[in-house]
Design goal:
Helices cover about 5% and strands about 40% of the residues. The protein has about 400 residues and is mostly beta strands. The chain has one domain (about 5-390): TolB, C-terminal domain (Neuraminidase), CATH 2.120.10.30. It is globular and about 55 Å long. The termini are far apart. The model is unreliable at about 1-30, about 35-50 and about 55-60 (pLDDT under 50).
Length: about 400
């Protein structure tokens, strides 16, 4: 567990007090609850914990964006284990699972059949999550029954507390519930460090992540201020340490600005290869053509023995400016939905950056957003420690 000294240093540097709580949570742990979100018994009443919209659209009339609605239904709370929840994703291979990612526990809460009378939840924290999921900012599922996470960390813990050394970047995890936070939980390690499948280490203070294909992901490097493509290629298996087949490509002139404790989420349009980025610190929405740019060769400073090169001249466009701390981002049916942490609004844009409409929410600190299997909009509220579904 981190020492009090190291926790105090980290909390000061990231200004975490606004989220509350103690990052020194139990590791290698699971817990579960059933019934109404925020309780341990009973059944879910989807009307419990609802809030009417402060406004509906920009004119007060019915919203022109189908994902917007007038009612906000609280699905999950701190009673389920939410602890500064900053992102949420439905598992595409098991859409009845909603995974939530919690900064101050370095772990997840998984909701099964969320928002239904059958809803249950389970908290899982890998025994080595304080490194491999340290102060997790964001997550993205892949297509190989895996997901990857970004960590807003400078590596303050690595099998014990330590001075930050920036050996940090995105991690690859199994979505298999028989493996994730189940395998390799012995501490100290005995040949396995937890259940993570891989990790590459060129992006401390990583703020956002998006899946491309296979084990390839795009990351928002908050420390160095670039977008970086990571391909883990073949993972090393649960708890391993061989990273040498990784391919890391830094887009050196695609500049992004981290705003501490506020993720900058990303989405890749797989049909066009366009990567959409919430550039939080600059208040912008960016679009990167991932097929553009010229590889300029090897970069120095590789931690992993991996292939590490740079790209320059990529086509990146500013789609929208003047946003108030853009954080969450979802791409759905030709629209970009962006949460503004500064206002609590969710803003809808077309793919050229023209604002279509916006919706106010009651969120205290809105962050990640996602589209559910039924096409409805969900968001994470780190300030209230709530998962919320937007209902018509």
């Amino acid at each position: 567990m981190p020492s009090l000294r190291s926790l105090s240093l980290l909390l000061s540097s990231l200004a975490l007090a606004s989220c509350g709580g103690d990052p020194g949570a139990e590791t290698g742990a699971t817990s579960s609850s059933t019934g109404e979100p925020g309780t341990t018994t009973g059944t879910v009443d989807p009307t419990v914990g609802t809030t009417d919209a402060p406004t509906s659209g920009t004119t007060g009339e019915a919203p022109v964006v189908p994902e917007f609605g007038a009612t906000f239904v609280v699905i999950g709370t701190a009673a389920d284990g939410l602890h500064a929840v900053r992102d949420l994703e439905f598992n595409p291979a098991a859409p009845e699972q909603l995974w939530t990612f919690n900064m101050l526990s370095h772990g997840v809460v998984i909701y099964f059949d969320p928002g239904t009378p059958q809803q249950t939840s389970e908290e899982r924290i890998d025994a080595y999550g304080q490194h491999f999921m340290a102060y997790v900012s964001s997550a993205a599922f892949g297509d190989l029954d895996t997901f990857a996470t970004c960590q807003e960390s400078r590596n303050e813990w690595n099998v014990g507390p330590q001075d930050p050394d920036d050996f940090m970047g995105p991690a690859l995890w199994p979505a298999d519930l028989d493996i994730f936070a189940k395998v390799g939980q012995e501490f100290p390690p005995n040949g396995q460090e937890g259940s993570h499948l891989d990790m590459l280490h060129q992006s401390p203070l990583c703020m956002g992540i998006a899946h491309e294909a296979g084990n390839a992901f795009w990351a928002f490097d908050g420390m160095n201020g670039n977008i970086v493509r990571y391909d883990f290629q073949s993972d090393h298996g649960p708890g391993g340490s061989d990273h040498t087949d990784g391919v890391i490509t830094r887009y050196k002139d695609v500049t992004v600005t981290r705003l501490g404790n506020i993720p900058g989420h990303m989405e890749l349009d797989h049909a066009t290869g366009m990567l959409y980025i919430a550039d939080t610190g600059a208040g912008r929405l960016l679009r990167l053509d991932t097929a553009s740019g010229t590889n300029t060769g090897k970069l120095i400073g590789d931690w992993d023995g991996a292939e590490y090169t740079g790209v320059e001249g990529a086509d990146v466009q500013v789609l929208a400016e003047g946003l108030d701390e853009p954080s969450g981002l979802a791409l759905h049916e030709g629209r970009l939905l962006v949460s503004e942490h500064g206002t609590g609004d969710i803003v809808a844009f077309d793919l050229e950056g023209t604002e279509i409409d916006r919706m106010a929410t009651p969120a205290k600190r809105i962050m990640g957003i996602t589209i559910g299997p039924e096409g409805d909009l969900w968001y994470a509220d780190a300030g209230a420690n709530e998962i919320v579904r937007v209902a018509p």
